[in-house]
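Why do we care about 3D structure at all? Because function follows from shape, and shape follows, mostly, from sequence. That is the central idea of this module. The next example makes it concrete: a single protein chain, its amino acid sequence, and then its structure expressed as tokens.
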Amino acid sequence: MIKRSTAEKMLLILSTFAVITISPFAYIRWLEGDIMMAFIDALVVVMMSVFFIFIYHSRNIKTAKIILAVFLAISIVTVVAIRGQSHLFWLYPAMIAFYYMLPARPAGIICFIAIGFIAIILFPFISYLEFLTISFTLFLTALFSYVIFNNYSKTNRKLALLASIDPLTLSGNRRALDKQLARILAEQSREHSKVSLLLLDLDHFKKVNDNHGHANGDLVLIELVELIQKHTRSLDDLYRYGGEEFIILPLKVDLLKAKSVAENLREKIAQSTFANGISVTVSIGVAEYRAGETAEAWISRADAALYLAKDLGRNRVVIETEIAVAQAL
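And the structure:
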């Protein structure tokens, strides 16, 4: 069962509603002999049906929203050109819809282009005062909508960022980790490739807090994250998994290469000093993704490797395949 996003559901419902509500108008206008408007209504119905199929199968929301906004703008301008000033009022709610569906800049461009065409169409047929009134009200509606939705988008981005980062270390939090894991598993379901994760845990971190205080312990975590981010690739994301545990993924390499990355990182940390000269080491468990498994199972295998690293004396890297060897011994 495909789980669809809220945006997908909204667009599918919108296109279905448009087909159901506009179809009778096309038929009625055809019966009344209004062939031109009947043709336009029928074209809208066909386009919305195609739009529904495109969304349903491709799930390409970004492209679909642009196509829908452009099509609606063209449809409104065309109707105004055919039927005149009385039909331009459809542009007011349409402009709000453009800003709701699209980022502020492309929505604004579509709005102002539509306003420009409508102004050109109406200018020869209405009084100068009417022309100015219509032009300014359309322009101000588009401008105010741009300001409101642009600020709304910025606020949403800030809130989304705050909701996805750990407030102490500024690494990703569990919520961001869950989203990243979901994306990786979706990619793996389409096309399997080599991808590994690292699960890190600071050795004897409780002693750091007990001997140096929690404030210094927090500073160690902050500086540790900065060090890890400095020495990992830009494609690898760091997430605070809990307490002094962190996860790095996706390492788009096999298990042995991931172990090499982990060893280099372990050495860098062991050779560094942190807040007030505090030295720490880390134990790291490494696991490569197996086709069809859950995120929990993947992390669990890395966690088992991490516990083995702890049992073997800490400050070391263990990969999942070494667990069976250790158990056999």
